[in-house]
Amino acid sequence: MAETNLGLPFDAEIFNYDWKNTPDMYLTNMLTSGAVVADGEIANLISNGSNFFVTPFYDLIGGEAGVYNGINDIGTDTLGGGVMAGTVYGRQKGWNVKTFITDFNSNADPMAQIVAGVANYWIKERQKAFLGILGGVFGITGDADWTTHSTSTVVDSAVAPDDTNKIGVTSLGDACVKACGDSATDFSLAIMHSVVANRLATLQLLEFSKYTDPSGITRNLPIATVNGMTVVINDNVPTTENASFSGATDYSTYILGIGSVGYASASVEIPSEMKREPALFGGLDAIYTRVRECFQPYGFSFKGDIATDVGMPDATIFASASWERKMPAKSIRMVRLVTNG
Description:
Blueprint: E1 4-5, E2 8-9, H1 12-20, H2 25-33, E3 36-38, H3 40-45, E4 52-58, E5 81-87, E6 89-98, H4 99-102, H5 110-138, E7 150-152, H6 171-180, E8 187-192, H7 194-202, E9 207-212, E10 218-226, E11 229-233, E12 239-241, E13 249-257, E14 261-265, E15 272-277, E16 284-297, E17 300-302, H8 314-317, E18 323-325, E19 334-339
Parallel strand pairs: 3-14, 7-19, 8-11
Antiparallel strand pairs: 1-2, 4-5, 6-16, 8-13, 9-10, 10-11, 12-13, 13-19, 14-16, 15-16, 17-18
Helix pairs in contact: 1-5
């Protein structure tokens, strides 16, 4: 028997197609920037299940060059490297609607509403996971080399809040140079709070992307550019109350370089399905959805517990204790800048 959705026929194949093809402008722009890459190797490793995978990495070649004089042998160094582990997280969510309610809404298009709602819900959840993993990586302690990738210009007990503690003309570039030196030109994406973005716009450094809707009205998108980098504006970046001054807020801005994070979607046999309970509330239609995805910050290995809860809850994948740096800090193009706006 065909499934129904709010009393209407439900075609899971069409629903899944519409859901998966709803544009995720955040992910799209992050991929376009080059900072986040669709990693085919990871996708292949997780295609047959499991919540854990391992990929190799290699150190940069180096060493001192010898003198070529027809006498000396050519010295060789062994190429070093290792492996980095990553994890897949799985999430699920369902919603229901009483059939009785729809009887009072003529000309409704419940399928369109549900498709749009489901897609946008999972877009937000994807950003939550992405930012949570970045927060875990930048929260790693006891790693002196990695601390150079975090720059703070927030107020302290000896300084009153003023513009010097806010993001400025050179703040993004200075933070990147501090972390990566002459590789600082490879940064291509910044993810920041709207307050920080507004500050850059006030300084005439930020140019918003625009969207014209079917009615001809042009609006700013939460996507912009600054210093040649794509800017994603997301108020879910970490914010905390400043410890020294009440009312002052510390905002984290993440700056990512080309190829710094890998992304892959894992297969789910049944991404969505419907169920109808005709007796409940006079008739209840419910939809259930499932996703499995992965964000892998290159240069770091996942060492969290993969057995206790194979779905990898937020408490595990967002925990700093679940991640360890494997590659040289200077080769990792990821920076966190903390300002008061």
